């Protein structure tokens, strides 16, 4: 910073203060004189006082007050200086960029706090400025606040940065390897931030540019870089539901892995296999997802970044859940939650990622009440970090909407569930195309809720309107799923089953039967005869036959089959058994078999008593306050159990 620029100008003195700590002139003078006995005694006294400050032993109340006042004054002076710089932003703008990154960020954050988003946007849209801001790692959560505010304000800063980086890469294509390597490092940081913030399309553009630079040199160091780039690219494509491109990305990564292997080099495959597991899970290829999660677990080492370990544990847990390996899933996800909280803290987005997957586990093991609490905690974190119209917030809203819907199914109180479903849809439609696959799931949840509200509605006109809206949402979700996954897929089958339930509510019984049978056939072929999803569809068809089509013999067989699967998977206290038991009581009443009516009334009473004892006071997070095992022990336990049981795929 040139000194002559600020000569005689009081309004820029804070910049000098920020760049250089102020020194006391008296101290400087004292340091130049030889010490006298009294001065030595004073120094000893001062030393004793210093020893009494925090972290160095006990201190008196007066010393504590003095120390806290000094800290307060330093912070106040610093904040005053920052405010003064911001007040003179137009004149100081060029000089602000020469400040250290932490101080520079604080100036920009003050712009955000004052609502000066246009000025902040003009700064952040410059690649050099934003690259420097990204180096202030301890301010990352605050950077998310600023960034999201700009996106909500209509400043397309994510797209501008991605475009600028892409152009920069095209300019340096003929430069030497060192220049390209530096650009790749910048791209990884920028793309990583955009990915963490949920702006997947822009992150994808950044990583594609990095990958292009990697391919310009067919040498071993660039092969390693290319693998890392493919892992990051696969992650953002998974997040953006670009599954067909994700498969291509994995194959490209394998090509580079093979090159390295032929030259006697090995890259750790944990992150790559974990992302492949996520891809296969999203496509409902559960057997393959489970197989690759095992391979990912084998690759975990003590040298891996904690983030990679946490993500692999999360994906492996989800794969175990859908394979109904609940004990394994519990161990993995609880350790992931513990690791994330211990390493990143309880307000970090990565911790919220683990909570969402923990909620998924709890929902699937029928601990519905606790799953709602966990999903709410995850949403709270994401709202505090991102806020605004952000895809991470939308997915948390959706998960909470569905768990709340399941939790309140018996009570019929769906206001909270509907609120979160509509929030999810509102955010997604604001930031993504109207035919984006993420909308299929959110629309499905809202349709389920609207159907239940319609059933309880006493106004026929309102009932018909709600049912028609639910119908439109279900059809839209079905079309999106078929376009992405095809006809023969679990997700498509779920949409058929949901349409079957809706047609029953609309009194279109033949159409309902057709949809339920189609759902059962697809699920049985993909998941087997005794899967939870099969039991759901079987129970829904039984309800149709029992309540509306008077096919009591068929209904009885289906109810008993659904009960058997539920008990086998979840035990005698499974919540879904209530609907089957009540269905059988109604069925036996209808055919005059009162002995069976009495029998199932007793069964239902016993079930109620069992439910009252289950999950009554347990706090789901209490179990993960401390981890009784190390990561190495958790991994070894999982792999040992897998070897004992043999392959389940």
Automatic annotation (TrEMBL):
Keywords from the named record: Cytoplasm, Cytoskeleton, Membrane, Microtubule, Nucleus, Protein transport, Repeat, TPR repeat, Transport, Ubl conjugation pathway
Pfam family, one: TPR_10
Domain of life, source organism: Eukaryota
Gene Ontology cellular component list: Cul2-RING ubiquitin ligase complex; membrane; microtubule; nucleus
Region (Disordered): 27-60
Record-linked PROSITE patterns: TPR
GO BP term, example: intracellular protein transport
UniProt subcellular location: Cytoplasm, Cytoskeleton; Membrane; Nucleus
Signal peptide: none
One example GO MF annotation: ubiquitin-like ligase-substrate adaptor activity
Chief place where the protein resides: cytoplasm
TPR repeat windows: 493-526
Record's protein name: Amyloid protein-binding protein 2
Origin species: Bos mutus
């Amino acid at each position: 910073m040139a000194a002559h620029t600020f000569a005689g100008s009081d309004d820029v003195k804070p910049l000098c203060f920020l760049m250089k700590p102020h020194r006391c002139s008296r101290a400087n003078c004292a340091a130049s004189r030889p010490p006298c006995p009294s001065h030595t005694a004073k120094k000893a006294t001062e030393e004793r006082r210093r020893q009494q400050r925090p972290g160095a032993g006990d201190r008196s109340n007066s010393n504590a007050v003095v120390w806290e006042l000094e800290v307060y004054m330093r912070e106040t002076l610093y904040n005053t200086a920052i405010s003064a710089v911001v007040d003179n932003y137009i004149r100081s703008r060029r000089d602000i960029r020469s400040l250290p990154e932490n101080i520079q960020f604080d100036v920009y954050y003050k712009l955000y706090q004052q609502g000066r988003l246009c000025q902040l946007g003009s700064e952040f849209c410059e690649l050099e400025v934003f690259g420097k801001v990204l180096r202030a790692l301890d301010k990352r959560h605050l950077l998310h606040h600023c960034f999201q505010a700009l996106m909500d304000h209509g400043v397309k800063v994510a797209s501008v940065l991605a475009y600028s980086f892409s152009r920069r890469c095209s300019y340096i294509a003929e430069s030497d390897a060192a220049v390209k390597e530096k650009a790749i490092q910048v791209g990884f940081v920028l793309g990583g931030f955009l990915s963490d913030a949920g702006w997947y399309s822009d992150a994808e553009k950044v990583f594609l540019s990095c990958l292009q630079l990697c391919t310009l040199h067919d040498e071993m160091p660039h092969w390693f870089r290319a693998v890392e780039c493919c892992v990051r690219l696969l992650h953002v494509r998974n997040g953006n539901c670009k599954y067909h491109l994700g498969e291509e990305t994995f194959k490209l990564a394998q090509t580079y892995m093979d090159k390295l292997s032929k030259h006697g080099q090995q890259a750790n495959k944990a992150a790559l296999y974990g992302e492949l597991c996520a891809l296969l899970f999203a496509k409902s290829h559960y057997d393959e997802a489970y197989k690759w999660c095992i391979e990912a677990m084998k690759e975990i080492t003590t040298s891996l970044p904690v983030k990679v370990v946490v993500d692999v544990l999360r994906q492996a847990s989800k794969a175990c859940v859908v394979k109904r390996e609940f004990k394994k899933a519990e161990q993995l996800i609880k350790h992931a939650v513990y690791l994330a909280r211990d390493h990143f803290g309880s307000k970090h987005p990565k911790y919220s990622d683990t909570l969402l997957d923990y909620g998924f586990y709890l929902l699937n093991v029928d601990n519905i009440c606790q799953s709602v609490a966990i999903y709410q905690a995850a949403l709270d974190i994401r709202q505090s970090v991102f806020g605004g119209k952000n895809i991470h917030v939308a997915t948390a809203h959706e998960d909470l909407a569905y768990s709340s819907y399941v939790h309140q199914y018996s009570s019929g109180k769906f206001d909270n569930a509907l609120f979160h479903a509509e929030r999810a849809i509102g955010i997604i439609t604001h930031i993504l195309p109207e035919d984006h696959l993420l909308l299929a799931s959110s629309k499905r949840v809202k349709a389920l809720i609207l159907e239940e509200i319609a059933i309880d509605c006493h106004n026929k006109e309102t009932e018909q309107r709600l049912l028609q809206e639910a119908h439109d949402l279900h059809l839209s979700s079905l079309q999106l799923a078929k376009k992405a996954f095809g006809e023969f897929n679990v997700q498509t089958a779920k949409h058929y089953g949901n349409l079957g339930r809706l047609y029953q509510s609309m009194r279109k019984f033949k159409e309902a039967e057709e949809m339920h049978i189609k759902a059962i056939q697809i699920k049985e072929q993909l998941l087997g005869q005794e899967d939870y999803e099969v039991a759901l569809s079987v129970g829904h068809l039984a309800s149709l036959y029992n309540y509306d089509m008077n096919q009591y013999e068929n209904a009885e067989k289906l109810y008993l089959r659904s009960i058997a699967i539920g008990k086998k998977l979840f035990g005698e206290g499974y919540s879904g058994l209530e609907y089957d038991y009540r269905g059988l009581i109604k069925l036996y009443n209808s055919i005059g078999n009162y002995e069976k009516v009495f029998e199932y009334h007793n069964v239902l009473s016993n079930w109620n008593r069992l439910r009252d004892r289950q999950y009554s006071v347990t706090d789901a997070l209490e179990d993960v306050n401390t981890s009784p095992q190390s990561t190495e022990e958790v991994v070894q336990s999982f792999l040992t159990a897998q070897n004992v049981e043999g392959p389940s795929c």
